[in-house]
User: Which sequence fits this backbone?
């Protein structure tokens, strides 16, 4: 039989209070250090994602801006104002034809997607209220000496899958019965066109007044912005614009110095001479655009890396097709 004193002599010693306090302190220190490390890594990777997104947006501008700018007509006063850090102009967003006059000031357009594959309506974005419609006017004289593009304000736009709009029974017929299920658009104009000079089949060009600029946001950072503008009654005067929508950034602060500014435009005529006088905007033949991003968001996320430098830059040139 085992004597009871056997267990008392062989009982394992436990941790003392001091040892427990030391262990708890070490665990707390290690846990705090790991938490700080994870938070710093999270901020760093978040900043990397932010900068990568900003650079992707910056390169998107190299696609969006040339698309809007290349088709403008300097001879037609499509460039409305230009500055070192901003540019306002009429961007052409699509074309169509007059399929049918629903009334004196309402025009029906052919469907964008037609079963035959014929493209009579094509646009980046469908026409909207506030856009402009330039309709080809044949004039009164034979030939094209008095032909011109007449500008109209679009005051209403409706769309529907309605085969009675631009119908296949129209003369001439621009749609077929196979297109009856396609979406169609009607545009209402502020002034009724002359149906004898802008006949069925006349070409329509759709334009939207826009402004590209650099601006400082409420967070204190600078960005490249895009704004829609309301056309002025005077076709050569810049209209009032809405608030900027963010296109790219953050970028470096905006200055009038093209060597340091986060966004800048340089304008040239056909001989390569810079154009700075607003009175000479009709002579602009090409536009050079520069964007500079900043690495500040990474620096804030990695405050211990004080020597971090960088950012990114992009520069491209857009030639104006329809110029003097």
Assistant:
């Amino acid at each position: 039989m085992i004597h009871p004193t056997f267990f008392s002599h062989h009982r394992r010693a436990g941790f003392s209070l001091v040892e427990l306090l030391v262990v708890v302190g070490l665990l707390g220190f290690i846990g705090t250090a790991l938490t700080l490390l994870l938070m710093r890594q999270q901020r760093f990777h978040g900043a990397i994602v932010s900068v990568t997104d900003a650079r992707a947006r910056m390169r998107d501008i190299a696609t969006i801006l040339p698309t809007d700018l290349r088709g403008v007509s300097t001879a037609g006063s499509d460039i409305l104002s230009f500055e070192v850090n901003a540019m306002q102009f009429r961007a052409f967003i699509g074309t169509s034809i007059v399929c049918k006059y629903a009334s004196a000031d309402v025009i029906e357009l052919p469907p964008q997607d037609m079963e035959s594959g014929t493209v009579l309506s094509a646009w980046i974005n469908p026409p909207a209220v506030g856009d402009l419609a330039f309709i080809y006017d044949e004039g009164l004289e034979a030939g094209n000496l008095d032909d011109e593009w007449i500008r109209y304000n679009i005051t209403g736009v409706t769309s529907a899958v309605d085969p009675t709009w631009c119908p296949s029974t129209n003369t001439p017929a621009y749609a077929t019965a196979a297109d009856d299920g396609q979406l169609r658009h009607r545009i209402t104009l502020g002034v009724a066109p002359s149906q004898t000079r802008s006949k069925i089949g006349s070409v329509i060009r759709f334009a939207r007044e826009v402004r590209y600029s650099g601006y400082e946001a409420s967070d204190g950072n600078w960005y490249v912005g895009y704004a829609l503008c309301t056309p002025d009654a005077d076709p050569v005067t810049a209209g009032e614009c809405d608030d900027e929508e963010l296109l790219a950034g953050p970028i470096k602060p905006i200055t009038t110095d093209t060597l340091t500014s986060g966004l800048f435009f340089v304008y040239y005529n056909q001989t390569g001479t810079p154009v700075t006088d607003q009175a000479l905007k009709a002579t602009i033949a090409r536009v050079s655009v520069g964007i500079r991003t900043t690495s500040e968001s990474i620096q804030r996320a990695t405050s211990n890396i004080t020597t971090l430098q960088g950012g990114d830059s992009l520069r491209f040139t857009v030639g104006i097709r329809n110029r003097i």
